[in-house]
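3.2 Worked example (two chains)
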Amino acid sequence: MKDFDLIVVGAGPAGSSAALTAAREGLSVLLVEEHPRVGIPLQCAEGLSRSTVKNWLNIEPEWIAVNLSGSIIRGPTGEEFRIEYPNVGWILNRKIFDSALAENAVKMGAVLKTSARVIGIENNTVVVNENGSTRRYNTGFIIGADGINSRVGEWLGIDTRLKINEIEVCAEYFMENIKIEPHYTYLIFDNKIAPGGYAWIFPKSANSANVGLGISPLKTRKKAKHYLDEWIKTEFPEGVIKEKIFGGVPAKILKKFSGENFFLVGDAARFTDPLSGAGIANGIKSGIIAGRNAALRLKGKRDFFEKEIEKEILSEIKFHKKVRDIYLRLSENDYKKIFEIGKNFFANKTITDINTREIIGEVIKNLPSLLPLCIRLLF
């Protein structure tokens, strides 16, 4: 006898989207979250672009901290240019957003258990520690949505280990008492501030923001916190740190992310964008795709999980992974030249889309010295 048709491990955007979708398809669903409250602790800069979730999820006003109108880009010399992109997206309040997604899954019929940590998987049985007591739940299918440190993938035979070149190490502070433009994200590309990555300021209000950076361990042995602390001394000397977040962003393409009775989704499946570090949209998409296809498989029908993931998520991730490989090989002089190319490309424009391939083409056209490297890594 099965306790649940489907067990979803992790109640982030990927897990809750999977649970909601599967419950809507008529499955009995258990959604397991190790923390006492969904959405806490926060592990995200909270940015989400409108185009990435269009036709996937309606973003409710109460989930939004700030509506965005574009970005301010800063290069290695400290010079800036602005990208005007009206209604590009939002800075979410993830604590509210994540909780609402999980609540919606519950309303659809899923059972949510918090303070419940999965400690093992034995065939079709999921072993859960619930407030110090061990429970076993039988299931027909498992969806692993347990983030970058996924144990579900490991238990089910997937090699999710990250090598030094397959991760960006991140540090972020939520800061108040700072002066920023509240409807623009700030993206800072400077190896002295964030070697092998970039720094960001994602506004939460006119005087507060998520301020962070990601670095590549290939470029430095110093900790991300060291770089963040050094940067904010000059960027926001009067700023007040209210919260601290430390973590990582995977930059790896898994050879396998599914099996006979399981799917991996979100960060657990390494569906994070390896170039930008964005993961919310791909988490939502992969969760919805997984929930729908788990229902098909459990009903004895043909499913299309791998094919849908390839089309909607992996094709772009694979391309962005190659672009990241190029980015990690650039010199400081290359950064300066590319910044100038970007400034000229976006000058006096109001845009409605950003096409990575078009930008790469513009860089190659104006910086032919990069052509051999781009050809080797991209093609």
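3.2.1 Second chain
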Amino acid sequence: MRQALREAQLAFDAGEVPVGAIVTWGEKIVSRGHNQVQQLTDSTAHAEMIALTAAFNQLGSKYLPEATLYVTVEPCLMCCGAMYWSKVGNIVYGAEDIKNGYRKTTGENWPFHPKAQLKSGILATECAQLMKDFFAARR
């Protein structure tokens, strides 16, 4: 998660909403991503989407059942769909996102692949603080 936080800091420094993600396969980081919505003028350029696309390219596979995706903030519904279709085996996130996280839409319904494992709250305080600092600076 610390590596995902480094990615989030890159987004913060670029004026993007500070969300970072990494994909691991075993103990190896195979891809990284951070929000690039403003830079790419693309509302789908979320950290998870960028990290997943890079992982597909790196591994030469459209499915990632052995992979773990770490993301600093609870994924949105769009990113959950991408994780579902890519069959990511493990999803780990830091801070909750009450306004835009998947649970706002799904409630407690499972939006991930049925075999996926989920862990939340990892470095949640640090992940949330980066978001708070970002939005406080813009208000």
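3.3 Remarks
The longest strand covers residues 28-34.
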